[in-house]
Amino acid sequence: MSFSVPSSARRPRLLIVGCGDIGLRVLKLLNTRWHVAALTSTAARRDELRQAGAIPLIGNLDAPATLARLAGWADAVLHLAPPQADGPQDLRTAMLLQALARKRAPRRIVYASTTGVYGDCKGARFDETRAVAPATDRARRRIDAEARLRWFGQAFGCAVTILRVPGIYAGDRAGGHPRERLLAGRPVLRREDDVYTNHIHADDLARACVLALHRGPSPRVLHAVDDSEMLMGDYFDLAADLCGLPRPPRIGRAEAQQQMTPMQLSFLGESRRLDNRRLKRELRLKLRYPHVREGITA
Q1: Ramachandran assignment for 279, one of left (phi > 0), alpha (psi -120 to 50 degrees), beta (any other)
Q2: Distance CA 109, CA 289 (A)
Q3: Where would a tag sit more exposed on the chain, N or C end, judged by fewer CB atoms within 10 A?
Q4: DSSP letters of 181-244?
Q5: Which of 187, 190, 196 lies closest to 261, judged by CA?
Q6: Residue 102 backbone phi and psi in degrees, to 5
Q7: What pLDDT band is residue 9 in, cutting at 50, 70 and 90?
Q8: Where are the alpha helices (DSSP H) in the chain?
Q9: 153 within 8 A of 111, measured Cβ to Cβ
Q10: Could you tell me one molecular function GO term of this UniProt entry (predicted)?
Q11: pLDDT given for residue 26 in this prediction
Q12: pLDDT-derived band at 230, boundaries 50, 70, 90
């Protein structure tokens, strides 16, 4: 998978904001016809980004004065940076868009949001037309970012595609494989208390990002999720069996309240199953790992 443009044309410029694990996977999919820069607030990452094929740009979304170089540079932006840690608004996206608006705006922005914007859906299965119902400021910040991006797209004639992303996993992703939780012996809910979760392999998400930059509809929201629909406990049971590890202990919700952190409990309070037909139809993405069964053992 790669972008292509006529050889006579100037190489289009892509800015990756938040070039962590997914951004680095995206870089591996791009060919040399793209001129890529990656915004980083960490000077120590310069060599890593150069080796991956990107020009490092030092800047901090929490410090607007450091973002002046972004103005007018990019033809397309892949926005993978998370919001700041508190408050109902995404001030980082606000700062990014202010910087991009100072000169010629990019023609396209792809933003990685979260499926958490829907809140608890009681296990319902639904598509992108469902209204958002955030239960946490973490989700409200993402909704704020989506709204700012839509406004920017309308105001500056910029195509905006939003990918709502669930739990990301991969064997080579730090903190992104179920074996780590299994080895820690952390419990899961018993079946009668359990919740549905959604997943996407990191490589499939990177491929979705590239396709969205190439042909993403605008203004449009897409569920960047795989085909698996599993209760969380069943997911970890499957992972344990595939990894040759003991299945996690099952506990009730009352015990979970005593043993788990507020952050862990927040994920146990939301249950939903997301339809991904729009992702496959409009981006024409063929999932490499359509079910976690394939992805866990990859």
Answers
A1: alpha
A2: 26
A3: N
A4: HHHHT--EE-GGG--EE-EEEHHHHHHHHHHHHHH--TTEEEE---S--EEHHHHHHHHHHHHT
A5: 187
A6: -70, -30
A7: low
A8: 21-29, 46-52, 91-100, 137-156, 178-184, 202-215, 232-243, 253-259, 262-268, 277-282, 292-296
A9: no
A10: 4-phosphoerythronate dehydrogenase activity
A11: 97
A12: very high
Q: Convert the pLDDT of each residue in 144-153 to its tens digit.
A: 999 999 999 9
Instruction: Please state, in angstroms and rounded to a whole number, the distance separating the CA atoms of residues 53 and 30.
Output: 9
Q: Which domains does the chain have, with CATH numbers?
A: 13-168+197-227+272-288 (3.40.50.720), 173-196+229-268 (no CATH)
Instruction: Identify the band that residue 34 occupies on the pLDDT scale cut at 50, 70 and 90.
Output: confident
Contact 58, 43 (CB under 8 A): yes
d(Cα 65, Cα 63) in Å, to the nearest integer? Answer: 6
> 67-125, pLDDT tens digit by residue?
999 999 999 999 999 999 999 999 999 999 999 999 999 999 999 999 999 999 999 99
